[in-house]
Amino acid sequence: MDEIIRQKEILFAQMRKLQARYELSKTVGPNYYEPGMMEYLDRSRGTFDEATGRMVLCYEAKGTRYDGRTSIIENMHEGDMITVVRDEENPYNHNNFTMVNGRGQNVGHMPAELCNAIAPLYDAGYIEFQKAFDSYVEPISVRSRYAKQAMLFVQLELQVYDEARTMSDEVKAESVISETDNGGPTETPGENALRDANDVWIVSCNPNYYDVEGAFRDLPVVTWRQKFTAKSGDTVLIYVSGDIKAIRYQCRVEEADLSSVRVDDSAYYKNDFDKNNVAARWMELKLIRIFVPQDTKMSVLAQYGVRGAIMGPRHAPPELVKYLDTLS
After folding, report:
1. How do residues 91-142 score in pLDDT, each as one tens digit?
2. Based on the structure, what is the number of domains in the chain?
3. Residue 169: is it exposed, middle or buried by C-beta count within 10 angstroms (0-12/13-18/19+)?
4. In whole angstroms, what separates CA 194 from the centre of its chain?
5. Would you say residue 176 lies in a domain?
6. Nearest residue to 15 via CA among 99, 119, 113, 136
């Protein structure tokens, strides 16, 4: 608990820094300029309501000049909704969060200092994102000819909890799938049915970093970094990126909240990542079934409530659960 308190202090310090930038904007003239430090002061914001636990952060998106994001931002507008997704596979920062627009396009990253403040609390269930949107957009086409990147600010609204949450009341209500429509059962689920599972999660896997196919083929269980509040008996759906771009595996959580790795799968990593040297929680996943990618590709998932790019863990929409139960 002491670690959680310390991490919250780090988060609130970052919030105050953002608000300090906004307050500073009130004291300087319109021509005040200090490259790299004092631009767009009034676009930053950080507030917290102690009565409700609601925090609002307005921050500059980073990395907007790379991977074609400059042209993507040309077509974005203030008020456009943004999905902030956990990106623990980022090779530069395992605490990373990525911003994705309504078309599923990556438009930038949360600043590293904010990522490092939020991720441990988010992973442990003490923070829940409510909504995010573009609070300020300035495409490079309207900036100075010397500008090297577009300017994008995001407003993120989040709930800070005193105790860890397994899932919000809203998501919990949506995740309950009734067995009856008229007082009686409508069908008998098969042995692989998802609707009887405790919680159903979607996580992502980058095959360029980890040979998930080989691991499930050769091992009785696969050890997965637990970045969410899973428990034994939950279902985990693994979305495989790269060339597959589909939910490929359905797994059952055999053990959760493990402090160490019990099954060695180091041979399946395609880099030098060593789980034994990472202070994290782990869970063991047992393979239940394999899906045909054509049935679970992104265009299909979008029809069943999956919005935006799948990067961080999320709950499976109820309509997706129903759909997957119809697949043989």
Report:
1. 788 899 998 887 778 899 999 999 999 999 988 888 888 889 999 998 888 8
2. 2
3. exposed
4. 22
5. no
6. 113
